[in-house]
């Protein structure tokens, strides 16, 4: 289905929880003790019903997000159910990787196709600091396990942060020379706790090209991808630059977002939402509501006008 600006909307990101087993500084405020209100969440069955309705009007790509999706009870069985929807051609997950060693085999058997892993440092001490106590070794072991069980198409998402990981850029890029892993550098977005972080520690994704000048641009088949891709000579993997702040890509956006509480977000960088939970729980026919959300998708975000999102990233689904 096309929106009012001629974009084909075929991608739904679904947050299954706001909870996370890490506490990344730019995502969750230091002072915050988060306790999820289970009653406020959509049930897994309700999440399935929304996905099914979107699939019936053209969605064929679904990404499961959080919080950390692997902390949601019943997630493996639910993924198995979602994977059987005939319209879905690509079922992926974004995870911090901490629980991946435990669940990788189950995820593969449940029908998951791909993984994006959020990883902001390859230095154990820096990783522990930014994540509020996380162990880098757990994530690296999880990645190895995922590769072993056949979840081989892995993307690493690295948020660029001044004076924290900008000195690690070369190490991340070198990883793509040795392994068929894509590393995507993402500009720090002014969302929630990240608003102040973005003001103080923003690093343009173009910094990657300055630090590693041997990278050369390559063409990819997926024109809707937010990343521009590069590669090292003889590199096995790719390097992606995602620039929502310095170079907006709204004209090719093909996605909608469903939060764990049942709000449809038309755009990551907008506060505007539609309450799908209300339609579900009032036993309304939701297909009309689903079509309405696609037609209501805005043309673009307004970051250049300092229109920032105060909702924290873990409440949005990324």
Summarize the structure in short:
This protein is α/β, with parallel strands linked by helices.
Q: Your description of this structure?
A:
By secondary structure, the chain is of the alpha/beta class. The chain has one domain (11-315): TIM Barrel (Alpha-Beta Barrel), CATH 3.20.20.70. 29% of the residues lie in helices and 17% in strands. The chain has 10 helices and 12 strands. Strands 7-8-9-6-5-4-3-2-1-10-11-12 form a 12-stranded mixed β-sheet. Helix 1 (44-55) packs parallel to helix 2 and helix 2 (75-83) runs parallel beside helix 3. The longest helix is centred in the middle third of the chain and has 14 residues, at 136-149. The two termini are 23 Å apart. The relative contact order is 0.16. The model has no long low-confidence stretch (mean pLDDT 89). [4Fe-4S] cluster 1 binds at residues 20, 24, 27. InterPro entries: Aldolase_TIM, Elp3/MiaA/NifB-like_rSAM, MoaA, MoaA-like, MoaA_twitch, MoCo_biosynth_MoaA/MoaC, rSAM, rSAM_sf. S-adenosyl-L-methionine binds at residues 26, 67, 118, 189. Its cofactor is [4Fe-4S] cluster. Keywords: 4Fe-4S, GTP-binding, Iron, Iron-sulfur, Lyase, Metal-binding, Molybdenum cofactor biosynthesis, Nucleotide-binding, S-adenosyl-L-methionine.
């Amino acid at each position: 289905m096309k929106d009012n600006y001629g974009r084909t909307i075929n991608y739904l990101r679904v947050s299954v929880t706001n909870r996370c087993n890490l506490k990344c500084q730019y995502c969750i405020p230091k002072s915050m003790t988060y306790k999820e209100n289970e009653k406020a969440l959509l049930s897994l069955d309700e999440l399935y019903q929304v996905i099914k309705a979107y699939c019936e009007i053209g969605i064929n790509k679904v990404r499961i997000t959080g919080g950390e999706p692997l902390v949601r009870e019943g997630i493996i069985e639910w993924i198995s159910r979602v994977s059987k929807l005939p319209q879905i051609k690509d079922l992926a997950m974004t995870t911090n990787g901490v629980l991946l060693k435990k669940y990788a085999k189950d995820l593969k058997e449940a029908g998951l196709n791909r993984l994006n892993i959020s990883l902001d440092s390859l230095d154990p001490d820096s990783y522990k600091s930014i994540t509020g106590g996380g162990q880098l070794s757990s994530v690296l072991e999880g990645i190895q396990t995922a590769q072993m069980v056949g979840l081989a198409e892995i993307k690493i998402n690295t948020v660029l942060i001044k004076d924290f990981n900008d000195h690690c850029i070369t190490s991340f890029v070198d990883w793509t020379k040795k392994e068929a892993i894509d590393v995507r550098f993402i500009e720090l977005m002014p969302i929630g706790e990240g608003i102040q972080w973005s003001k103080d520690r923003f690093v343009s994704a173009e910094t990657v090209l300055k630090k590693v000048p041997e990278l050369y641009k390559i063409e990819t088949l997926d024109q809707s991808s937010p990343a521009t891709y590069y590669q090292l000579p003889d590199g096995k993997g790719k390097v992606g630059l995602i620039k929502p702040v310095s170079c907006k890509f709204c004209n090719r956006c093909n996605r909608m977002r469903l939060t764990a509480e049942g709000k449809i977000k038309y755009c990551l960088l907008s506060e505007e939402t539609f309450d799908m939970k209300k339609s579900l729980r009032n036993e309304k026919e939701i297909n009309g509501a689903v079509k309405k959300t696609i037609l209501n998708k805005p043309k673009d975000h307004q970051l250049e006008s300092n229109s920032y999102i105060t909702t924290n990233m873990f409440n949005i689904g990324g």
